[in-house]
Amino acid sequence: MSEPSFASVPRSMSRARLWVAALLALLPTMGWAEMKLNLPEPVSPLTREVFDLHMMTTWVGVWIMVIVILLVGYTLWKFRKSTGAVADQEFHKGFFGTWSWLVVPVLVLGLDLTIADRANSTFDQVENIGDAEVTVKVTGSQWKWTYEYMEHDYSFISNLKSKEEAGEYDYLRTVDNPLVLPVNTRVRFLHTAADVLHAWWVPEIAVKKDSIPGYINETWTIIEKEGMYRGQCAENCGVGHAYMPIEVKAVSRAEFDQWIGERVAEKQAAAELAASNKVWSQDELMAEGEGLYNTYCAACHQANGAGLPPAFPALAGSAMVTSDIPAHIDIVVNGKAGTAMAAWGAQLDDLQLAAIITYERNAWGNDTGDAVQPADVKAAR
Amino acid sequence: MSSNAATHDDHDHHHAPSGWRRWVFSTNHKDIGTMYLFFALFMLFFGGAMAMVIRAELFQPGLQFVSPEFYNNMFTNHALIMIFGMVMPAAAGMANWMIPLMIGAPDMALPRLNNLSFWLLPAGGLMLVMSIIAPWVGGGTAVTAGWTLYPPISLQAGMSMDLLIFTIHLLGISSILASINIVTTVLNMRAPGMSMMKMPLFVWAWFFTAILLILIMPAFAGGVTMLLFDRHFGTSFFDAAGGGDPVLFQHLFWFFGHPEVYVLLLPSIGVLGMVIPTFSRKPLFGYKSLVWGMAFLATLGMVVWAHHQYTVGMSIWATKYFMIGTILISIPIGLMKFNFIFTMWRGALTFETPMLFAIAIILMFAFAGVTGVMLAVVPADLQYHDTYFVVAHFHYALIPGAVFGLYAGVFYWLPKWTGHMYDEKLGKIFFWWTTITFNITFFPQHFSGLAGMPRRIVDYGVQFTEFNTISSLGAFAFGLSHLLFLYIIIKTIKGGEPAPAMPWEGAQAGTPGLEWTVPSPPPFHTFETPPEVK
Amino acid sequence: MSSSHEHYYVPDGSRWPIIAVCGMFTTVFGTALWINDLSLGPWLVALGALGIAYLFFGWFGDVIDESMSGKYSPQVDTSFRQGMMWFISSEAFFFVAFFGSLYYIRMIAVPWLDGEGHLGSSHLLWENFSATWPLVSTPDVDKYTQVIEPMGAGGIPMINTLLLLSSGVTLTWAHWGLKKDSQTQLVLGLALTVILGVIFMGFQAYEYYHAYDVLGLTLNSGVYGSTFYMLTGFHGMHVTIGAIMLMVITVRAAKGHFSHEKHFAFEAVAWYWHFVDVVWLVLYVFVYWM
Ligand code: HEA
Ligand code: HEA
Ligand code: CUA
Ligand SMILES: [Cu+2]
Hints:
The complex is a heterotrimer of chains A (381), B (534) and C (290). Chain A has 381 residues and is an alpha+beta fold.
């Protein structure tokens, strides 16, 4: 974008133009960084279609504004009393006065129908969900995304990367586990939520849909270009609404197949390990638990265990966490109805839960020395 | 106006009651109107202060001043206060003051009810304040749901939410009763000869506004009542596990919420219908089509609510219906805009403060309208929805569309209300200051929205920094301009050039109301014997 | 608009509205505390309710006095009538919202959960659910109690329909009495209407008891119970208010307050009662019958 100079704006221009110019003149001083002024470049057939529609309505809007501004500007200029203009008391009664009520609506109706027609056909495409090769169930919950590859029966959770990890620049834009999708493949998304409304939105590849607890919405896409696409939760979901970004990593079909194969195998191995009767040492559990805690629990209870009282209790020094093992296991496995504390038993396996609980009981000065075993968790289910 | 002493009861009507009783027990439309206006002015600062908190927090990335919970509570209450506490009461205050004067009525049709409608507002305001402080006093989480109060998130909050639900009940009852009063006044209290088609446009505008309120407010009250039952009595209206649907609440909310935006807009259109002919020195162009246009707008406005819910997944046909219906709203509003422009055409224009605001509304609200039509287009809205593009759209609609109309009204009628001319020079400074800073605040938000910034977030990635910094700076300057506004009002109340019955050398001769036949300020009682309109 | 030439009565300052505001505020604030288990709550509700009762006596007392002493011109009467009409319109839209909700739940949401229509994939989340109306078995069978037997249309609801319909007839009969200035017919008709209304309420209470005790139809039994109690409950509340207003009118009629040309209060209550009647008919069709 070029930089219009303030001085070149003639004084007689309408005030609307003046402020646009003033604003644009102000902008360069702020540093452009990575500032975008429009929707991002689309990388799927659907978003391209939507983008074109957006540009069309934008131009209709711009032209309407130009006409209105010119008309008003001219009127104000021409009929100033200070230049001796005398009001025409009969103007509203003339031919124009009698028929303008018909003229304006008919013209506007024409524009409206043009827009609506274009919108209608694009919308048909949006709704043309069809069969897909890859189906991903996207579940929003406070405040993270869970992705499930329906064909592979494989799911994982994607969380915000902390500021330390992501760095100042990428904070709030990056996650620990991006969603991986193959390019040039028809992908279908099933949107739902676990607790409150969320909305999954990645501007470049997909249109936005709400995630509604208990219901499933559908969208589709075909990504045409490899790369990393970023988005955010776009429906207010409470205090963590700003903290659930989305990353989609689009890779070649071969790379995708390899990736999903590895992940499925990994998952099976982990499941076997959790089911084995191995007794784990406190250190092993702590090491495992720290990462898991930071992934799943720190959003509310914070990485330092201090929580965000009164909404989210501190775990450091908590009576329950430092003494009562069964109650501790119970609240983590079964959650607490009516609060944000979810039943994690449904999302994590016995080993993971044991590790998290052990970590909580020994971190941040809790130092109970307990090592909760997967078997203990299993018993509590 | 002479009074008809024969039919009087023993009280002397020509001396206003004094002391606190005059205000608390008031049955006088002018006093009640004044109270409405002061209440609204107070709420403007209250809700505005919350906007300042929002903008300060968003000044740069990171958590600066407030917790996420408080931030969410701020935008929730900012919106509720601005809409229910500021715009609606200010418009109702003008209705109270002006409608009886314009149509030659001795007062509102039901004066005691009028008092009840007003005093419910401070009660609702108090309840709202308690909702804000409840988390500190009584524990539980604050309301973080936004003014739309969507479940399930509104089911999670603590007692704060219950207090907010009751706030809405109180404010809702207030609006319904005030509207009943206004419709009845318009239908039953016109002076002989003041036929409906002779009424000033402002009266028509409020007539439709009031009918809208009577019909839509109950849906909102019903919706929040269902919310209350889901929260405390085990029902499952909004819970799929019991067969309900969270989206049902959205339908109830927007069945109220969309017509509500016309409730905010129409009084301001009514003000334009007075101001523009005045300072163009000729009659309103297309009076009849404006009236029918408003009727059409009100009707159509009631049946397009779901354009706020394109992303929730409605059937294809329902979505298309709502899209086309919404786009068609550009017809009546476009008609109004052009009628106003044609009113200026071949006029003799002067640019006093009310007129400046009126012109700014025509230009800037047209802009809000075209972004509104962009939003109405479903596939595109699926990208805009819940981003700052929407925030920009609705602040352009709400501030030029509604608030500037109120400013225009205040400057236009201040001489009538107080008997003093306002300071024209300060008025003009206020106009330029607000108009410029308003645009600095909200214009960049279109871009941040398109660039991907969702609304209702307390913290954002660094890529959005520039937009937000500009926006915040603009907002602070815009906020400060209101101190000038306050100063102008106080100054006008305290003194200034005395205003004649018809200020501006009788420029308003082309407007049909009777308000200019009484002195400025009007006596405590006016039109005790109905005037005859020829 | 011929009457406009007369003096329109504008009352002097009145303390009732502000008492009304305080009463309403106290009541709802008390309710908010109560449902959050704060012990002050019920006391405040009682206090607020007392205030409101006091206020009704006072405010309406003033209006009656003014009316009886001939201060109201026909134009004032018209204001009251129009005000009441718009108030009833508002009430009607309150019920429209509830009937709309019933429609949405029944025709749109529940079928989706069972795999039909636009959001049919939702069935993936509730594999064992099958849609029926009345919805006796909720999608999540553990979270809510299940209905044992839905409410039928015969029996009490049928009797109640007949009761309300006949109460409409007795009320109209009373109106005829008023028109020909027959005090006995007026009072008798009103009294009969009140009695029918009270019997209706008694049956309704018994029906609720039966539903809780035998049918397993409760507020907690999923959305069928929710909509059932919301619609019948709010209707019942209106019947109660209507019956109380009818009682007051009966007493006033007995005192000879109404004449064939001046009886706004009677007519307002009659409109209200007929409105409540019509709501019941719609309700009977959509809640009990279909
Ligand atoms: C005063 C308030 C006001 C007004 C008047 C309007 C007016 C309109 N609004 Fe706006 N709107 C809001 C306040 C208002 N809105 C608010 C508060 C929200 C957000 C709520 C929330 O989520 O919190 C919102 C959100 C909102 C949405 C939802 C966006 C989303 O969340 O995804 C949509 C979508 O259709 C929309 C559309 C419109 C349209 C089509 C109009 C039309 O009425 C505009 C018509 C006017 C014109 C078109 C201009 C004049 C006409 C011409 C010059 C003729 C030629 C024009 C054309 C042919 C285009 N609005
Ligand atoms: C009539 C309605 C109305 C009005 C007038 C305003 C006025 C303003 N609004 Fe508001 N706003 C809404 C209705 C309104 N808003 C709604 C409906 C929402 C959506 C809420 C939701 O998402 O639920 C919203 C949301 C909203 C957001 C988005 C929050 C988010 O999504 O996270 C923002 C952010 O910039 C904002 C800013 C402002 C600003 C800067 C003003 C300014 O115009 C305010 C100017 C006025 C003053 C500032 C007051 C007077 C001055 C003083 C108090 C003196 C002191 C001044 C200083 C110290 C500088 N508003
Ligand atoms: Cu999840 Cu917002
Ligand atoms: Cu809308």
